[in-house]
Design goal:
- With 402 residues, the chain is mainly α.
- It has 3 domains: 43 residues; 95 residues, Type II secretion system (T2SS), domain F (Receptor-associated Protein); 243 residues, Receptor-associated Protein (Up-down Bundle), CATH 1.20.81.30.
- Helices cover 74% and strands 6% of the residues.
- The protein has 15 helices and 3 strands.
- About 2% of the residues have low confidence.
């Protein structure tokens, strides 16, 4: 049985004397040193990478694919062959899973398999849109240009996704922390005050009695409430995965959330126009490009609207007319597409629309964050301050009596 390759961490100097470090796959330390020597690296420290106690390396994510796409585009532009580009990236990548996948893809390409076919073996990392564009590049002989467009598309998509996540994550994280702090106060701190109040022998203020009642309820039924909430969340997530109707309804409802819904709408429009621009400019027929854009929109409302546009365009209708009929896209988008169709530059117009909406999402997220910070601080102040006032109110009243 052939010995499996291992991952080695190394430190050394390049030909110019600069300090370098990284990781490399090899069968042994001596082979790792030989491989590094061929790359012009004088290694002074090479050791086998230790596996995590919790098992497995970091999973491959969309950001990794974006970076690799840009690396391939840059290397192809510098005159490096496709196979060499994949092999070089595989050797120097920091994630074992990524190295393994890229090495396997490189082996397939070396054996004569088209890159698009090799990529289709990994549908979780390379979706149909990605593979179709690579196939188009192979057929047209413009793989370098296609990878450059793919890299730009991926980078824009990741930046947009990051902005939308930021808008959703910040308030949710603060509210979760506020809930945890409030729960701790009600279960562990308020009961201490209740013991003190029991020795007063006087009637407590209504506000204090209300907080004490909530505290007793949390102590008696808190565990059951927590289990019910956790069970409800689990069942909802499970149903959300299995039920298309539920996912579609959730998508519709999220678009109606104040401010957040508007950000999601603009994000969906940006994804639609960016995807359609990238695929259409790469030579993919409009019908196929619309199919890819529908899947990339990220929202059921926009997906259904784009599929309707695809059906109408296939029947001979102009795209801007079909877009207006959906009542989903803003007038500015429809007008820009109409101008693009008249001038024969639809892909350029779509790219400009995507840039506009990506900038709007950016501005809205920054504005939302600035707006939410004082609001969340005010809510936290009212909740935590209210608990403190409720606990000290009887003590203040006793001081006034004395």
């Amino acid at each position: 049985m052939a010995k499996a390759a291992a991952v080695f961490e190394w430190q050394g100097k390049d030909r110019q004397g600069g300090k370098r470090k990284g990781e490399i796959s090899a069968l042994s330390i001596s082979e790792a040193k030989n491989l590094l020597r061929r790359q012009g690296i004088s290694a002074n420290k090479v050791k086998k990478q230790q596996k995590s106690l919790f098992g497995g390396g970091k999973k491959i994510n969309a950001a990794d694919i974006s970076v690799v796409t840009r690396q391939i585009a840059t290397m192809l532009g510098a005159g490096v062959t496709l196979l060499q580009s994949i092999q070089m990236i595989a050797q120097g990548h920091g994630k074992p899973d990524m190295r393994k996948m890229l090495t396997a893809i490189g082996d397939d390409v070396s054996a004569g398999t088209p890159l698009s076919k090799a990529l289709r073996k990994y549908p979780l990392q390379f979706d149909d849109l990605y593979c179709d564009l690579v196939h188009t590049g192979e057929q047209s002989g413009a793989l370098e240009l296609i990878f450059d467009r793919l890299a730009t598309y991926k980078e824009k998509a990741e930046a947009l996704k990051s902005k939308i996540k930021k808008a959703m994550f910040y308030p949710a994280a603060v509210l979760v922390v506020a809930f945890i702090v409030t729960t701790v106060l009600l279960i562990f701190v308020v009961p201490q005050f209740e013991e003190i109040f029991s020795s007063f022998g006087a009637e407590l203020p209504a506000f204090t009695q209300f907080v004490l009642a909530i505290s007793r309820g949390m102590q008696e039924y808190g565990l059951y409430i927590g289990m019910a909430v956790a069970g409800g969340i689990y069942l909802f997530i499970r149903a959300h995965r299995k039920s298309k109707n539920l996912r579609d309804n959730v998508d519709k409802l999220t678009l109606k959330i104040p401010v957040i819904g508007e950000i999601l709408k603009k994000g969906a429009i940006a994804r639609f126009t960016r995807t359609l621009s990238t695929t259409f400019s790469a030579g993919v027929p409009l019908i196929g490009a619309l199919d890819s854009a529908a899947g990339a929109s990220g929202n059921a409302v926009f997906r259904d609207a784009i599929l309707y546009i695809k059906k109408e365009v296939a029947g001979g209708m102009q795209m801007n007319t079909a877009m207006r009929a959906t009542n989903v896209f803003p007038d500015m988008v429809n007008q820009m597409v109409a101008i693009g169709e008249e001038s024969g530059a639809v892909d350029e117009m779509l790219s400009k629309v995507a840039t506009i909406y990506e900038a709007e999402v950016d501005d809205m997220v920054d504005g939302l964050t600035s707006l939410l910070e004082p609001m969340i601080m005010a809510v936290l102040g009212v909740v935590i301050g209210g608990l403190i006032v409720a606990m000290y109110l009887p003590i203040f009243q006793m001081g006034n009596v004395v």
